[in-house]
């Protein structure tokens, strides 16, 4: 399966309710290959569900595409379409929740607009 089809499948699974992942137990041992944004996110959520997760990365976390993107999250003013602004706002809230959950210090920049 090529990476684009795999990404589409992951997106579908993410928005599909009740995919049977509720059966994860502390006895389950799962290996994730790749510590980019997708692999790290999968590992994080499986760990929260009780699985024992090992992440294998050839280089270092976010060493490739995940660490070399523009990655600009902002929601300072409503952009059109408004659904896009809503998605941006939800993304910021998710990062703020993650910051609290795992005790990291995200350095939030600012912006100036006129």
Outline the structure in words.
This protein has helices spanning 3-15, 37-48, 82-102, and strands at residues 29-33, 52-56. The protein is mainly alpha-helical. It folds into two domains: 1-69, no CATH class; 72-114, no CATH class. It is globular. The protein contains three helices and two strands. Strands 1-2 form a two-stranded parallel sheet. The longest helix has 21 residues, at 82-102. Helices cover 40% and strands 9% of the residues.
- Spans of 5+ residues with little confidence (pLDDT < 50)? none
Silhouette: globular
Number of helical segments with 4 or more residues = 3
Number of strands: 2
N to C succession of SSEs? HEHEH
Arithmetic mean of pLDDT: 80
Beta-strand proportion: 5-15%
Structural class determined from secondary elements: mainly alpha
Radius of gyration: 17 Å
Query: How would a textbook summarize the main sheet?
Result: 2 strands, parallel
The span between the termini is 47 Å
The helical percent reads 40-55%
| Order of strands across the main sheet | 1-2
Number of domains: 2
Protein name: FAD dependent oxidoreductase domain-containing protein
GO molecular function, one term: oxidoreductase activity
InterPro entries: FAD-dep_OxRdtase, FAD/NAD-bd_sf
Pfam families: DAO
